[in-house]
Amino acid sequence: MNYQANPTDSDFEASGLSRLTTVNWQDEHHRRSITASLVQGVYELEHARQKNFQECKAWWEFFDYQLLDKLTDNIYSDSSIFGAIYEFTPKARNNYSIEAPTYVIAFRGTIMERHSFVRDMKLNIKILKNKLHRTSCIEKAIQAVKDKASIHGATIWLAGHSLGSAIAMFAGKDMAKTGKFLTSYLFNPPFVAFPMKRGILVAGTFMITAALTVFIRDHEERQHSENRFKELRNWVPKLYLHESDPICTGYIRYFKLLERMQRYGVGVIGRLAAQNSLKGLFMEYFGMEYCSEELHLIPSACVTTSCTPKRHAHDLSQWFRDDSVSDPKMYCYNNAEETV
Q1: What are 229-285's pLDDT values in tens digits?
Q2: Considering the domain boundaries, does residue 49 fall inside one?
Q3: Would the pTM count as exceeding 0.90?
Q4: How many domains does the structure of the chain reveal?
Q5: Where are the beta strands (DSSP E) in 223-300?
Q6: Which domain, by its residues, includes 19?
Q7: Smallest Cα–Cα separation from 260: which of 297, 207, 222?
Q8: In a domain? residue 286
Q9: Distance of alpha carbon 170 from alpha carbon 123, whole angstroms
């Protein structure tokens, strides 16, 4: 959340544009690189604004997209650009046998410069407090997505990096509750939970969370929580993660542990823990204000990891390339009807 990921032009042109001399929308590697570059475009738009540049390098035009609109946060006087809406304008030279999305709505992460740092860090703190949904940028993001989703025949992809992934995650979850499951590319999304121990999410935390859920909530309340979780099971966001990135590595542990519990026949415990957090349960028990739908708790995902050097673990630029990226692994919600 609190890292700047702004590769130089040469980084991207060497690893991204030079490789994609012809765009093939059937190739998942191309789709990943394209969406990462559109997120990078939001970084470039904000950098250009801060430096009072009239224009910035329009990498999106190479992929036959045009900048349709900028999403700005006017709650602060700087009106920083936190997102962008791109519209597809096809040209004959590219391969469109699988249709490219009509719109890509992308969100940037934190920029460590004085013109946006304070505003971005306040949003990061909102994520830690599970209060991102109360911010104006979320309202604007959701409204932008709903506006485009209302256009007949339009396809929409969401994309984001770090803080921007949290915004895209929220918008994706909101749409999933209405039955619209948007393709979502989330690069290094923040996972806010109890700390790791030697790279492994402590299984005991899951056990305690499940036990507290049963203790604090009656069957009807647990069933309501289960039903809300099931609403999201058909939304499978694409998560791009790095084992050494403390911001997002929790997702790797989260899904691996859920899978392991299911394999050992204790999936019901995993599902209870996946729907709740210790922090949330304690706040609920003591009557403290709390939003029960924590951002990072999702039932399904397609996970891709990178083994790029540790010092670049949070960089957006690692997702332009193919050399360090693993094959995706699908984690699907178990529909088995188990009750506690």
Answers
A1: 778 889 999 999 999 999 999 898 888 877 876 766 555 655 655 666 656 554 555
A2: yes
A3: no
A4: 1
A5: 238-242
A6: 9-191+235-258+301-331
A7: 207
A8: no
A9: 13
